[in-house]
Amino acid sequence: MKTTNTPGPDLRDYSQLEKENKLVLSYLTIRKLIGILGFFFPLILVLGSIIFGHCNHIEISISNYYHTNMRDVFVGYVCILSIFLFSYKGYDIADRVTSALTGIFGVIVALMPTNLKISNGIIPQCNIWCDVERHSVIGTIHLIAAGLFILGMAYFTLFLFTKGETYPTAQKLIRNKIYKGAGYVMITCVAILSIFFLLPDNISQPLLKYKPVFCLETIAFVVFGFSWLVKGGVLYNDK
User: Fold this and answer.
1) By the 8 A CB rule, do 130 and 69 touch?
2) Three-state SS for 119?
3) What is the Cα–Cα distance from 239 to 171, expressed in whole angstroms?
């Protein structure tokens, strides 16, 4: 009686599958880390300044924490976030170019601080680093890079995260709405900030007590972080 041998499982297939699974997990992990960093970034700066710097007020912008006792945290946090973005490869060349540029803008934001404004020669209570006030060119570069950094984050959510299947699942449709909403919120924040910075001093200065820059930057970071957490499979993930 003639028998036929049924081919056993190809170990090479299992090895390839294991590599693919590890690759998927690494992407999901990076996405979650980016989301966590972005979501909690403003809160860590504020709490750290209050607890360790004994500051009883919020800075006028997130970038102003560079001049406080949270300087190392600010620089390290933005650099880590930028490195994650820079190392994020995504699916195609558009993903890689966008992530690389956004990471570069983030490094510029971290290493080229914003200008610290000093009224009547009096250094604000929580600002212990004030030697960069005269470097107005650096401050301008920082401002431009910060805007491009947020716009780069918005590009991710609007055009890259919404890519998917020809026939998306119900969960994917929900995720796309979250991504688009986050992107539009970030673009709106940049637009309002641009208008604010163009206002004459006699109009913008009285508004600073309401912390409009800090609030808009915080909103941008929070929705950015939330979108990356969704992308990392924390919420509305397909079964």
Assistant:
1) no
2) strand
3) 9
- The token pair at 7 is 């081919």
Non-local CB neighbours of 196 within 8 Å, separated by 6+ positions:
204, 207, 212, 213
Question: Residue 116: pLDDT above 80?
Answer: no
Task: Indicate the residue type of 213.
Answer: V
Whole-angstrom Cα Rg for the chain: 22
User: Residue 133 half-sphere exposure, CB side, CA atoms within 13 Å?
Assistant: 13
What are the CA-CA distances from residue 55 to residues 43, 113, 131, 184 (Å)?
A: 14, 20, 20, 33
The pLDDT of residue 42 is 93
Which SS3 state, helix, strand or coil, does residue 195 take? helix
Q: Which of 13-27, 100-114, 225-239 has the highest mean pLDDT?
A: 100-114
Segment 190-228, tens digit of pLDDT: 999 999 989 998 898 888 888 999 999 999 999 999 999
Contact 35, 234 (CB under 8 A): yes
Q: Which two tokens stand for residue 161?
A: 């995260």
* Whole-angstrom distance, CA of residue 122 vs CA of residue 137: 22
As given in the structure block, the two tokens for residue 187 are 């673009």
pLDDT tens per residue across span 56-89:
888 888 998 988 889 998 999 889 888 887 877 6
- How far apart CA 34 and CA 52 sit, in angstroms, is 25
And the tokens for 180? 């688009």
Encoded amino acid at 198, one letter: L
Residue closest to 63 by CA, chosen among 118, 141, 27, 115: 115
Are 180 and 162 spatial neighbours (Cβ–Cβ below 8 Å)? yes
